[in-house]
Each structure stands twice: as C-alpha cells, then as structure tokens.
From TrEMBL:
Entry's localization field: Membrane
Cellular component aspect of the GO annotation: MHC class II protein complex
Protein's recorded name: H-2 class II histocompatibility antigen, A-Q alpha chain-like
Family, as annotated: Belongs to the MHC class II family.
Keyword Hydrolase: no
Pfam families associated with the record: C1-set, MHC_II_alpha
GO biological process: adaptive immune response; antigen processing and presentation of peptide or polysaccharide antigen via MHC class II
Signal peptide: 1-19
Transmembrane segments: 207-232
Topology within the bilayer: Single-pass type I membrane protein
Domain Ig-like: 98-203
Keywords of this entry: Adaptive immunity, Disulfide bond, Glycoprotein, Immunity, Immunoglobulin domain, Membrane, MHC II, Signal, Transmembrane, Transmembrane helix
C-alpha cells in the first residue's frame, strides 16, 4: 500500500483585524483503497469528503459561526483524488517501489466526563504520532468485541508530519466493567492495547470525599487535643 499526500497550508492575513490564521487543506490517497480529503482552520477540522455518501460534510460544532463550502467542492475533491492516484503510480514506476517510512502510534483511553455508575458517558481512545495514516481501532467490553456506539474521526495531521485520530465509545459505566482500546498499525510489532477499569474510576470518586472528611476530622481532633493540653498546662502553672 502506497500513500501520496498533498498538504496545502496557507496563512490568511486579515489586515483590518490584524489577525493571522492558518487555513489548511490536506488530501491523501492510496493505490488500493479510497483516500481522504479534509479542510481545516487553525488545526481544527471544518469539513471532509464522505466518499461513501458522495458529498462534502461540514464538521464544525453547533456553537461555531455558520459556514459552508461551495456545492462543487466534492467534484473538486474527486479530481484531486484522481491526480493523487496518478502520481502514486508514476512514483512507483520511477522509484521502483521505495520503502515507505513508518512511525508507530501511541494511544491512551479516558472518559469524557466524571464517571458515575449508571450514567451514560463516552470513552475516548486518543491515537497519535503514527505514519502512514492507515490503522484499525477495536473496542472490547469484558473481553467481548464492541462495535455499537463507536465512532472514528478523520485523520488529523500533526506538525511533525505524523497523524492523530480519535475513536469514541458511548457506554454506561457499571462496577466490574473493563474496557480496552486496541490499535493495529503496520509500524507496530503487535497490536497496542490500553485498558480502562470502571472500578478504578468509581473507587477513586467514592473514597475521595471520605478521605478528605477523615483528614479534616483528624486535624480537627488534633487541634482540640492540643488546645486542651495547653489549657491544662496553663491551669497547672497558675
């Protein structure tokens, strides 16, 4: 599998506001499967091409100012993909299938919100520092594969030419549950798995207030004891 990536990075300067912003367009293609095309601003994704639906999808959050790309954007993306694939085939002929550079990913797993048993939450698997942008993310709950309620973001480019991706899992935490996020990538000698134990999060939250109350009570009793000691000593002196 060979990857050809074009990255266009423009700095737009608005003289009236005296501000400088980075407008980014990244297009990537493979010789054996569908590629990706994403537009972003200041490192955040604004929209990407959905080749299965054959349309350009805006991904700005609800609170952002309304913005949309031209209707012909998806047609432009298709043309870029074709040029990218043509270049891949040309490079493969010229360089005689050179060895592709790789970088292994690092992943971590954490909940979006504070963990409360029985209350819906989201687990986030954060994967970064990998190249090329092709990998597989798998979730399990108590050693059983989970696919329902999972999402996978678009690849996000890093400044060092590696990539970042997020996978999420909607879940309801219960005591005894153990979740894992496993990443498979060609730069890894074996799949990389990170585990999240619901009991650890729930226990920390439940014992936290008790610990603070216990410490506060101990300090309070110590203060009373010290005060009583000095009071007795003063009376003895008198």
């Amino acid at each position: 599998m060979r990857l050809c990536v074009f990255t266009l990075l423009n700095a737009l300067i608005y003289t009236g506001a005296q501000a400088k912003y980075k407008d980014m367009h990244i297009a990537g293609c493979f010789d054996t499967k569908q590629g990706e095309d994403m537009y972003g601003l200041e490192g955040d994704e604004m929209g990407h091409a959905d080749f299965s639906k054959r349309e350009f999808v805006m991904t700005l959050p609800d609170f952002a100012d309304p913005f949309s790309y031209a209707e012909e954007t998806f047609d432009t993306v298709k043309n870029i993909q074709q040029v990218c694939k043509d270049n891949i085939h040309a490079y493969m002929r010229i360089y005689k299938f050179p060895t592709e550079a790789t970088a292994p990913p690092e992943n971590s797993i954490y909940p979006k919100d504070d963990v409360i048993p029985g209350v819906k939450n989201i687990l986030i698997c954060y994967v970064t520092g990998f190249y090329p942008p092709a990998l597989r993310v798998k979730w399990t709950r108590n050693n059983e594969d989970v696919t329902e309620g999972t999402t996978l973001s678009q690849f996000r480019p890093n400044e060092d030419k590696t990539f970042t991706i997020f996978s999420t899992l909607s879940f309801t935490p219960e005591q005894g549950d153990i979740y894992t996020c496993t990443v498979e990538h060609q730069a890894l000698p074996q799949p990389q798995t990170k585990m999240w134990d619901a009991d650890d999060e729930i226990t920390v939250r439940s014992i936290g207030p008790s610990v603070f109350c216990g410490v506060g009570l101990t300090v309070g009793l110590l203060g009373v004891a010290v005060g009583t000691f000095f009071f007795v000593k003063i009376n003895n002196c008198n």
